[in-house]
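Standup notes, structure subgroup. Blocker cleared on the FE2/S2 (inorganic) cluster input:
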Amino acid sequence: MIARQRLVVIGAGMASGRMLEQLFQAGFDGEVTLFNAEPRGNYNRLMLSPVLSGEKTYEQIVTHDADWYAAHGVDCRFGEAVVKIEREDRVVYSNAGGVPYDALVIATGSAPFMIPVSGRDLPGVVTYRDLEDTNAMIAASAPGSKAVVIGGGLLGLEAAAAMAARGAEVTVIHLMGHLMERQLDPAAGYLLQKDLEARGIRIHCKGATKAILGNGKVEAVLLEDGTIYDADLVCMAVGIRPETRLANDAHLEVGRGITVDDQLRTSDPAIFALGECVEHDDQLFGLVAPLYDQAKVLAATLMGQDAAFQPVQTATKLKVTGVDLFSAGNFADAPGREDIVFRDPGRGVYKRLILEGERLIGAVLYGDTADGSWFFDLIKQGRDVSDMRDTLIFGPAFAGGVTANPLAAVAALPPEAEICGCNGVCKGKIITAIEGGATTLDAVRSATKASASCGTCTGLVEQVMALTLGDGFTANANPPMCKCTDHTHEDVRRLIKSMGLKSIPAVMQELGWKTVGGCASCRPALNYYLIADWPTEYTDDRQSRLVNERNHGNIQKDGTYSVVPRMWGGVTSPAELRAIADAADRYNVPMVKVTGGQRIDLLGVKKEDLPAIWSDLNAAGMVSGHAYAKGLRTVKTCVGTEFCRFGTQDSTGLGIKLEKLLWGSWTPAKVKLGVSGCPRNCAEATCKDIGVVCVDSGYEISVAGAAGMDVKETEFLCKAATEAEVMEIIAAFTQLYRENARYLHRIYKWVAKVGLDWCRAQVEDPATRRALHDRFLISQSVYQTDPWAEHAATPAEWAPIADLTLRAAE
Amino acid sequence: MTTFIDIAALEDIPRQGARVVKTPAGCIAIFRTADDQLFALEDRCPHKGGPLSEGIVHGTSVTCPLHGWVFDMTTGQAQGADEGAVRTFPMRHEGGRVLLDSDFMARRSAA
Ligand code: SRM
Ligand SMILES: Cc1cc2nc3c(=O)[nH]c(=O)nc-3n(C[C@H](O)[C@H](O)[C@H](O)COP(=O)(O)OP(=O)(O)OC[C@H]3O[C@@H](n4cnc5c(N)ncnc54)[C@H](O)[C@@H]3O)c2cc1C
Ligand code: SF4
Ligand code: FES
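Run returned:
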């Protein structure tokens, strides 16, 4: 036991971060100094691709923040690269000076490999390793720009897909005959290539890079076969090599990586190493799962406990949204090996199992990876599979008589089967955590770390939860709509459609409502669902609307109402302002206020005056602003190209067009838009339900922002080149929300549930997008009417039905 | 002797809705249920004065539009955890007309 020791760690990466966590958990009470060449602490490097594509922000992938380091007394030296290790005196040096150690951990990861062609030093040539690389690619992948990725492996393809998602024109140059040849066989590589090409990524296999061309900055890539691809940016992702320079200079034993024993000790007993920089048993590491095991072992070693590192098999998944691919084990052709292959070209599914004798030794799955964990488990167990060989390829649903259901694959897994590959969490451990009270995904995550790294196993974890908790899981995650029914909102929405229920009484009758007439919580929800699902057949039930929507104004605490006319895109005119001023005078409006939504609120109007004031405003050409509605509220705009010297597009005009397209539509909760004319974002578009930021090359559409009880930045949905495209995408997205979300869930809550990827897939598919857009317009043909005009026609209904005070006075 | 005052035609009050009668004793909400039962309640929630006439009517209950207290219209009692009651008034409907007992006005002026 090394007590009160001075521990110095070089490198704040995936491996050392986990090691420090384990160390502090075990009660380590020494002093820790943490050096990192990057000017920041530990973050989830695996998640750089979602940051690159815009699906996540850097802040969301930070794993240890300043508070964490402070709480554990870690002396952080971020942005300080270590330049020398003085083993004799046990001191490490950065350019800022030396720090003595009792124990030293080298966790420097790897350095990306650069192919030695001319032009590789030109500005615009990057690798893919850290946030700087990621930001450089983000900056360079504006729509229309051209990017070339050299290397069609995991990293290169993630970079290519992410830059393509940002609108860049991407070409991948790969030396081998098919993509990801280390993880995929040619057939799966071909399917992957087709999928990526369908996203507009150009793939050039068997392409050897001869030179990178450019004058002062990168301009093109030249291949040996003479092909030239233009490039504003070149990302070199051709491989990594362990970062061993410090160890070399300190004369530690280094092979391809820093040599370590089972305790992660180097040839100097006071110096340890872990992560991608090490070599253990002639093996190097490039995925995090074994590194996390190393972290555990090294933490134990530093605490003076016995532990030994045993490398485990790893499985690979590509983190490209919408591409399902899984591979594990060994799949090269060799004597004595047999294949079982399944193909369903229509669905783009390919599965190949590799058997050696009676055992499964490898699996490649493309398009349908649900059974991946099960196969991986058979590979690791090395179990005799001859008894189920006939149906093996169909997965656990058909093995051993288990009936086919979505959970069967997970149910069939033994407790030791691995669910989370990154963190090596097995099914049994998750079950133990759930049984110990972790009944939400977050709780399971914090108890076990399952699904906390690359996140691809989240679905599996949820399935284990569903299996373990049974009804408890559904009840927990998703309670019934209200006390009137046992059905959840989702069930009710589904049944309304599948059973063709077209009135509130029909829903209550057929779905067995337990109360007469429901309650104030389910009735507005049902009314909304029916409007959204049967726009041309259902008639809105005013009596099932909460007061604000029934009376088309926000009720105030004294029972008066507010009146907010639409000001399209926040633009008004002297005539409108005069009409508003006159109305305010005529009806003794106690307060006239500019709202946060770029329009004017007349507050404190008596109910019986509403029809008259509406009628006056109608006469001046104004309609209801629906400031009270679960529907479209405002489209905030900025001045854009019309007046602003920075404007790139007519943001005001587009905002008005969008408001004219969307107004009057009922939605699960309120919907607010913003359109900014340039990234200065004066219309605050990036905290709205839907935001558009104009850029030189077009329009960036992002969704799921919030600025009320929760504050959240929008997430990038997609780009559009023209105003027409923006309108179609936004109408389609709004319709997707209308058709699927639970009543009262704002867009950001709904997106968090269904996943932005799914939404994007819907609106990016041209046929689906068009159909959604058309359904939106059908609904608008009924609902885009001004409620003020309608109700102004029957003023008597807004007044008391009888006035007995007059009678008493008579 | 009770005198009923003719207030309105039944059709003037929406099903699962209410209309308001102004009286010297404050506003009274006349509710009509889905199956045409009628109730007259003081239009003032005991919580913070919300206009019950603007609430959602379900079965023989109404939910206050301001903060969601639920009242049983047959008794005027708040339901569930909330404590309080609103005054109720006798009424009936006859030949398509809605009639309100005028006693409360008399009693009030007598008091
Ligand atoms: C009038 C206005 C304040 C103002 O004077 O500026 C306002 C007034 C009210 N807001 Fe708001 N909100 C107003 C802009 C906002 C904004 C800012 C914006 O739209 O840019 C926000 C934050 C952005 C957002 O929605 O994410 C905002 C977030 C809320 C929320 C929180 C919503 C959430 O999901 O977190 C509520 C509560 C709710 O809806 O349940 C709310 C609810 C309300 C209600 C309706 C409360 C109520 O039920 O009585 C207020 C009605 C006042 C009245 O009597 O008319 N108001 N409210 C603004 C009207 C804008 C318009 O022209 O339509
Ligand atoms: C874009 C991307 C996606 C990936 N996706 C996956 C995936 O899905 N699944 C998976 O298993 N793996 C994935 N990986 C690989 C995984 O990130 C690595 O295996 C892992 O990060 C290695 O951890 P490490 O701690 O050894 O090194 P790193 O995480 O690289 O950390 C090393 C740190 O040491 C610092 N350092 C280096 N030299 C010095 C010095 N002299 N002084 C001070 N600091 C120094 C570096 O700046 C760096 O911050 C991905 C990698 C990338 C880049
Ligand atoms: S913040 Fe909005 S809801 Fe709150 S008091 Fe102001 S206007 Fe009302
Ligand atoms: S005023 Fe009725 S519930 Fe608050």
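Discussed briefly. The radius of gyration of chain B is 13 Å.
Next: hand off to the docking folks.
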